[in-house]
Amino acid sequence: MSPFTGWRAALRIARRDAMRAKGRSALVVAMIALPVLGVTAADVTYRSVDSTEAEQLTAQMGSADALFSDPGMGPLQQMPDGNQYDMVGDTPPEGDVPPVDMRTAFPKGARAITIRSVPASVTTAYGLADTDIVEFPTSDPMARGKVDLVEGEFPRGTGEMAATKPFLESSGLHIGSRTTVKSAGRTYTITGVVEEPTDLKSQKLYADPGAVIAPWQTAADRDKKVLPPNTGSTEWLVNGSGGAGIRWDDVLAANKAGALVMSRQVVLDPPPDSEVPMARSDTSYYSNDSGEVSAAVVTVVTMALLEIVLLAGPAFAVGARRSRRQLGLLGTCGGDRRHVRAVVLSGGLVLGAVGAVTGVAAGLLLTVVFRPLIEDWAGQRFGSLLLKPTELLVIAALGLVTGLLAAFAPAIVAARQSVLESLTGRRGVRRSSRVLPTVGACVLALGVAVAAYGGTSGNSTWVAGGSVVAELGLLACIPVIVGLLGRLGRRLPISPRMALRDAARNRGRTAPAVAAVMAAVAGSVAIATYMSSSLAESDQDYTPMLARGTMVLSSTDAKTAERLPLARASVEQNIAVTGGHADFSRVWAGSDCNVYYEDENSCGSMELVKPTGKGHTCPLNTKGAKELAARLSAEEHRQMMRSPACMDEYISSGSFSSEANNIVVAGPDLLRTYVKLDDPAAAAALAAGTPVLLNQAYAKDGEVTLKAVHTYNAKDEKNRKLHPGAARKSTDRLKVYVADAEYAATPGIRMIMPERTAERLGLHTQPSGSVYAVPHPPSDADEQRVSAAIDQAGGGLWLQTERGPGDREDIILLILTLFAGVVTLGAAAITTGLAKADAEADLTTLSAVGAPPRVRRTLSGFQCVVVALTGVLLGTAAGLVPAVALRMVDLRNAMEAMREEPMESAFTPIVLPWATIGLLAVVVPLLAGVLAAGLTRSRLTLARRAG
Question: pLDDT per residue over 89-102, tens digit each?
């Protein structure tokens, strides 16, 4: 007799049972297919975004054979891929390397087109915007793949341009609109929308060669001006003669002429190292292949596998419960426990196979359907929809194994039931095992200890392993935890009391559902906690250019400062300014001298002299800084970094000036608008002529030392005549009002000096700009309107806004929350459905003794809440283990870096995602309860008793 005979019968029974219970089967298939779908979509997306080498070459050089460029170092040698190169011979003197004559570098008979870009100001539908204009024949066949047409037509001629979609959205323009390049003084018509496949978010304009830069150069020569320096950055796309491509000997010949070459043929089929001069030499080059995988990724993937195994368990518990009578009949026909287990496991095999195939197919289909959205989100086009059959088979096998593992526990439970219990529907009475929770508690403690050890030692593998072990231990404890729930309802009304006792009495169906919810929430909370903590760390390390909620209008010199009144009027007319404004001035050295810049055109300098000693000198920037850093904890180091003495070591000068002194001439309005210092005493001090010092480390006995050096520029004949002789130094001691230590972090300002104090010291001042308090950063349209008004007034002014540390990845936290919420609702709904099937007799009895109809609804709602809330709370606790351990890994690495470089930040906070936890712990259980109560019939359909 074949050993597979029994399994063939079991598979037939499982297939027929699945066809009879289509609703339950569809639910099981959906629960298995859902994670398979997600993994399939993620795999295909990752493979497609991670383009092949050939696709990367197409994105860089279009359909051309090679990309030529001039690094400006003369003859050179390079690696075949063109990413590493070095000059040949000694370093030439600066400015002595002439540009490469590309006619000598191109192979004989080759055809080339140029790519040249220039930053420019162009008119928009709102005003004026800064963007990059690229002179590039986009209609040439060699451009295909580097720049593609999306809509309209390529520009043809010197009066047309094409634009990227982000530029059109920002500027309010469209196909057919006309835009003027201010510096060139010419107007162009936008004829089409183009895109760079590798950068869908770029804002650029494309024009044919000679359309912009040549007339701009003509206008610059006429006005005796100089074009921006990066207009000289030119690249060439080259096609070899006769379709032969660009060979390695062509690359070597171009290197001798001083050209760097990236050849498609050479990169895809590189020469041996013996033919590569740079490889034969001992020149080292960098490799970015660390061979290490992110600790967060390892942990998340490991927990995701555990989640997939647990997700379908409650659904199979439903099937096993509802098939008790059928399994009992199998026993009456001679089947033993082995056959009962085979039937239940066959159900897992059948439904797991269907779920795996469905999930893979749905994942592929959804990836194709949502490909444009995925590409927009990733910011680049797929080179092609890349499918790896081996990986897809592994994913499908994972879904199949998921079905088997999910059916394993229900199979064991079903096999233990006697035939009489199965036929009569009686549950029997069994004492709970004390071994499993004991072992689970020990495993939980061991897992937490292993994860903590991995965190302190910096080993991400231990973190991942310990987190999984801890979650497995918590899973083993779930039956006991569920059993304790029944004791919590003694003083509650009837519906919640029955729900708690029903969950405790039927742990076989409640525990798997709680486990599924716990696993889903644990993964989401782990990722959300790690991300929230990382965002808090980046926010702490971020150095703002301006104070939050402010905007600065600045001028560059005395001539442009005359246009400030018109610019201020434009700002106040076009941008919502809610908190007032304050004007400020810059300190000059004198009427016959340039601004106090420390550059080649200066004729003097001025600085605040920091006293020496404790409270003035930063200990982290002294001789014994490394020894000190080795003794500090992360929090002690953070406090020291934020002290006034160390603050100015890494706080930028902001947008007020480029001088190192950070002294601004202004009145009390600046305290309120920018510094956010609401101190009447400080305002009174400024009004009385006393400077306000924001960084107290520069004060000693309430005074500061101001040192000025009046010199001349030896290269400037005029300044040398105006300032003959040796440099003249002057030092003044000023009584100041010292602000609290927290204001030392104010970007761009170290001291605010009243106008009359500057005049008393013989310092000349020049109106420099204004500060505005704004409720939110201005939009692109607002900034373009202001830019247009400034340009109309003569230009030379700029507007800067503090936009914070950049884009936040809140969308990922939202997706995690939605995923965990859907799983929680699904598992709770499954358990509620099983509870309704199991509790029909109890509900009939309640109805017979006069219980009101609403009890049925409220009981279903509370049963759903019990499962959802218990799973969420346990999942939150389980998710914090890997998140905290991973942050411990980060802390260890940060501490090592800080001890090597004492000024490096070691701040590694652990921030709980309260919004995510609140949604999962409050909103989702309540929603599950309301839905369960709303979808439950309040009256029973009484069935005729058999027999």
Answer: 665 655 567 788 88
Could you tell me the two tokens for 348? Answer: 């897992």
Place of tokens 């890494």: 650
Q: What does the alpha-carbon distance between residue 520 and residue 817 come to, in Å, rounded to a whole number? A: 10
917's enclosing H/E stretch is: helix 914-918
φ and ψ at residue 77, rounded to 5 degrees: -130, 150
User: 550 has which bridge partners?
Assistant: 773
DSSP three-state, residue 700: strand
DSSP state, 942? P
* Secondary structure element (H or E) that encloses residue 237, with its range: strand 234-239
The amino acid sitting at 305 is L
- The DSSP code for 459 is -
> What residues contact 742, with CB distance under 8 A and at least 6 apart?
none
**Closest to 697 in 3D by CA, of 616, 596, 624:** 616
Tell which wins on pLDDT, 711 or 190: 190
Q: Residue 693 corresponds to which tokens in the numbers above? A: 């010092």
**Residue 869 neighbours by CB under 8 Å, 6+ apart:** 921, 925
Q: Is 747 helix (H, G, I), strand (E, B) or coil?
A: coil
State how far the Cα of 62 lies from the Cα of 622, in Å rounded to an integer. Answer: 53
Distances (CA, A) of 186 to 121, 190, 194, 221, 750: 12, 13, 21, 16, 45
Distance from C-alpha of 746 to C-alpha of 694, rounded to nearest angstrom: 8
Q: Are 711 and 593 in contact (CB under 8 A)?
A: no
Return d(Cα 866, Cα 825) in angstroms, integer: 12
Structure tokens at 41: 């979509």
Q: Where does 688-754 have alpha helices with state H?
A: 717-722
∠ CA(446), CA(452), CA(453), 5° rounding?
90
- Report residue 845 CA to chain centroid gap: 56
Residue 772 tokens, joined:
């505005």
Three-state secondary structure string covering 478-502: HHHHHHHHHHHHCCCCHHHHHHHHH
Residues 6+ apart with CB under 8 A from 225: 219
CA distances from 728 to 571, 707, 722, 777, 924 (A): 42, 11, 13, 45, 73
pLDDT tens track for 768-807: 889 998 888 888 888 888 888 888 777 778 888 887 776 5
Instruction: Mention every residue, 6+ apart, whose C-beta is less than 8 A from residue 835.
Output: 502, 503, 506, 509, 860, 863
How confident is the model over 437-488, as pLDDT tens digits?
A: 888 889 999 999 998 898 888 887 788 788 888 888 888 888 888 888 888 8
Neighbours of 695 (CB within 10 A): 25
pTM of the complete model: 0.72
Q: Which residue's entry shows tokens 């002014």?
A: 797
Rounded to 5°, angle at Cα 562 from 557 and 568 = 105
Nearest to 440 by CA among 476, 490, 468: 476
Listed in sequence order, the DSSP H helices in 741-793 are 755-760, 780-793
The tokens describing 101, both together, are 């004559």
Cα separation of 108 and 389, whole Å? 45
Which CA distances in Å does 941 have to 132, 644, 735, 853, 938? 73, 77, 91, 12, 10
